[in-house]
Amino acid sequence: MKLYRPATILVGIMFVLLGGLTRLAEPDQVYDEANRDLVRGTIGQALPYNGSTVKVNRVKFAHAYLTGASDEKAVETTGIYVAVEYDTVRGTQDPQLPSPQLLTDEGTVYAPIGDTNAGQLDFAEPGFGVNGVLLFEVNPADVKGLTLKIRSTPLYTVLTRDVAVDLGIPDEAIGQRMIDAAAPEYLIPRAVKRVAS
C-alpha cells in the first residue's frame, strides 16, 4: 500500500511535465490568448472595438511638434514624429482602457508621447465621437510595416477586441518618401467632441 501512493504521485507529476513539454513544443499555442479577438483594417476603415468604433483618418510625418501653447518653442527630434489622426465613436459598452502603440515589421514597439494632449486614445460619452490624434516618436530607419495596435486592458477576464490598423508603409522606399516629405512642424490639434452620426 505504501508503494502505491508514491507511484501515483510520480505518474501525476509525469503527466503534468508531459503537458508542459507539449505546450512548449507548440509556442504559437502558448501565447495565444483565447479571450482576445484581433480586428485588422486600413486607413479610413471604421473598425469595431469593444462596442465602439475606431477609424484612422490620416498619418502625418513631421520633424517637430507644437502643442499650441502661447510662446511655445517647437519640440524637435533626431528621429521623426508620426501623427495618427483618428475618430472614435463610443457605443454603450465601456471601451476598457485602450492602450495604443505603433509596431513595425522589425518588432519595434513605440508608445505615444505622454506629455502632450496626443498621448492617449479618447472616447466620449455613449453616442458621441471624438476627433483626436496620437503622436509617436520613431526611428526613421524602422518605419516599414507601421501598424497602430490598440489593445484593451480589461479589469477582469472577458472577451475583448483589439484593433490593428495598417498605416500603409509596406516597404522602406515608401517610408523614406514619407520621411522626405515630412512637415517641418506639426501642430497638435485639440480633441474635438461631436455627436455621433
Report on the architecture of this protein.
With 197 residues, the chain is α+β, with helices and mostly antiparallel strands. The chain has two domains: 1-32; 36-195, Immunoglobulin-like (Sandwich). Helix content is 18%, strand content 39%. The protein is built from three helices and eleven strands. Strands 2, 3, 4, 7, 10 and 11 form a six-stranded mixed beta sheet that branches. A five-stranded mixed beta sheet has the order 1-9-8-5-6, with no helix packed on it. The radius of gyration is 22 Å and the shape is globular. Residues 27-31 have low confidence and may be disordered.
Describe this protein with a few key phrases.
six-stranded mixed sheet, five-stranded mixed sheet, 197 residues, 39% strand, 11 strands, 2 domains, alpha+beta, Immunoglobulin-like, 3 helices
Note the topology.
Layout: H1 4-25, H2 27-30, E1 36-42, E2 46-49, E3 52-66, E4 75-89, E5 99-103, E6 109-110, E7 128-138, E8 147-151, E9 160-166, H3 172-180, E10 186-187, E11 192-195
Parallel strand pairs: 1-9, 3-10
Antiparallel strand pairs: 2-3, 3-4, 4-7, 5-6, 5-8, 7-11, 8-9
CATH architectural group of the largest domain: Sandwich
**Largest sheet geometry:** 6 strands, mixed
Helix/strand-derived class?
alpha+beta
Give the end-to-end Cα distance, rounded to a whole number of Å. Answer: 75 Å
Whole-number tally of structural domains = 2
Number of helices: 3
- Low-pLDDT runs of 5+ residues are 27-31
The CATH topology of the largest domain is given as: Immunoglobulin-like
Helix content: 10-25%
In CATH, what is the class of the largest domain? Mainly Beta
The pLDDT mean sits at: 84
Number of strands: 11
In what range is the share of β-strand residues?
A: 35-45%
